[in-house]
């Protein structure tokens, strides 16, 4: 049965499409003979992806033929209400398969009715019809909106075009300078029940001119509808009931002639036109595929009003020029202002601002003259400078697309500088050039003698007599058999946490030694008075039960209160330090430091700096990192605090940014570094990896190559009394036993004083200087000056802590003076 558009289906459409008038029934006319050559073309319903049982109409295809906008009153997910704009895409202009449509959303769509849109050739501006809005002048008005990234913004009523009557169905030319639309305003050729096509032009002040009726060559005393200007501006499609045809509204085409007038309209004929209404025609720049709306009877119908497509022979020759401006490294889209000038005529044929979300630009030109020409491109990209290029447009008799992208920017760059290694600097001129000229990380084998002082305090948590878990304790006596105080791995604190095992081991090694144990507390209100005794008891129990120490060798002082050398009880950190058990002894074999002599590998120089160039524009940079890899290890270390735009990184200090032992390479495979620049949208751009050469100078190499050699002695003194620069008896003995008599000719001595963080920074700096001066005086009194090549003494206060200040033992170990002695042993 022939399907007709029921009156109720037109209720919602009446205002958008027809104004307040009633859809007239047009009789078939005899004029405007149809083009019978179109009969061979197939018309295809776009099917259930685009069409539904609701109304789908007013398609608008973009210039590239890949994005289709249309109007529907469907109530699918995303619908705003009433008649809304929907959008769908396809991969190729000639495809017939579309993606699932999505609603264009606010602010273009509202709960009122919107319909009939026209998209600018570059896709950045939409012109559309909206009805009954608060800012409207008539029943329906024409509006425009701009695309910012993926959002439509700046919706405005084109008040200079609209009237108090009905204005609808805009179509904008591909150069964006001419707008065609339908209106029933006074001046229509058929009176108040008629609707004619009007035209307005964009003036130099970016306002639209007073609309002008296109006159009798286009308009008739019957209804005109659905204007569409083909990209290029010389072929005009529209629907009319006044030029003859097949029944109601038929599609016609007219060409712009050399004298500026429009040719007599030509009926598109079958199969495009039927006895029903055909409306809302749209074509891509190629002019070879037509989309339209029809009420026709078709086996593919989904609803009463559907969108169709078909083929047309191209009636003009155009070129679509499109491209993208982007950062070549992060593939990030760039905002650019571009102008395109025909170098033959000197005419600026297009200006464009690229889409901020896609970086794309596009425009359409007419090339009917079949002559080759060049287009000069000029523009600017903030942060990247000027863009200048030529686009060659070849002679052609058919539609073509030219793509010209503008990849800008460059990959990040990373270099590094470092002071010369101390070892390389010490080499004589006679040393092999491969060592003297080496620039990189030097790993040197050195015989090291180091003492680790023993802090004989066990610290406890508040209101607790349980030995904290950071202390290393054996569960039973069977585990102690392989323990030795000279084989404990790690540094000072790692050895300290074996304190009870060290004392137990030494007491078994020296059976005549004795110790005194005394517990202490911070004397806080409400504290258990037995807490001091309990803290002493747990230490006593461990030594007697695990290490089997005879109780007669241990003297227990149970009621301690504050320690004799107490920390400030009014300071929270001092309270923590006073909660301890002290182990005291007059036997040197119990209290002496741990002495380790071994060959170690050291790196130099300690520091290096990276020079960075982002490559991408600074405004695109979210953050940067430098990834440092040791012999190919991923994620070995990453410098993160390097700023966004600074040309130089903070100083990279090897021993601060990685565990000292992990720096030491096992072979001479270079370290590598790579700058990673992250953009605001999460993309990353990487520099080339730069190598940091490594050379290993072993003791065997030194002997074989007759290179400079040295030994290092490192001594640390502890148990400086809180806030005191007095060395004390234990430190004096360490100095006499290990330091004074061991200094050999040519020694370079560095004495550094340290403090914890308790107290003011300036005061701690002076305290550390006084502690260093105490040792300096001892050295000068007890060591022949002829042996000392140099003696450097300084105090660094709390600014360069050797150990953590978060724990009481760390703060005690920071109350120290460190003596480092470099002594040459070989070379020429």
Describe what you observe in this structure.
It contains 14 helices and 48 strands. It has 828 residues and is of the alpha+beta class. The protein folds into five domains: 7-311, 6 Propeller (Neuraminidase); 318-408, Sandwich (Immunoglobulin-like); 413-446 and 598-697, Immunoglobulin-like (Sandwich); 454-592, OmpA-like domain (60s Ribosomal Protein L30, Chain: A, 2-Layer Sandwich); 710-824, OmpA-like domain (60s Ribosomal Protein L30, Chain: A, 2-Layer Sandwich). The strands form eleven sheets. Strands 31, 36, 44, 45, 46, 47 and 48 form a seven-stranded mixed beta sheet that branches. The model is unreliable at 1-31 (pLDDT under 50).
Task: Summarize the entry for a quick read.
The protein has 14 helices and 48 strands. It is α+β, with helices and mostly antiparallel strands and 828 residues long. The longest helix has 22 residues, at 761-782.
In terms of topology, how is this protein built?
Layout lengths: L12 H6 L24 E3 L10 E6 L5 E6 L11 E6 L12 E2 L10 E6 L5 E7 L8 E9 L2 E7 L9 E6 L5 E6 L12 E6 L10 E2 L10 E6 L5 E6 L9 E6 L10 E2 L10 E5 L6 E6 L11 E6 L6 E10 L4 E2 L3 E6 L5 E6 L6 E7 L6 E9 L3 E9 L6 E4 L2 E3 L4 E5 L4 H5 L6 H4 L4 E12 L4 E3 L32 H5 L2 H11 L5 E5 L11 H15 L8 E4 L14 H7 L1 E5 L3 H4 L2 E11 L2 E7 L7 E9 L7 E3 L12 E2 H4 L2 H4 L7 E9 L4 E3 L3 E3 L1 E4 L1 H7 L4 E8 L10 H12 L7 E7 L7 H22 L5 E8 L12 H7 L2 E8 L4
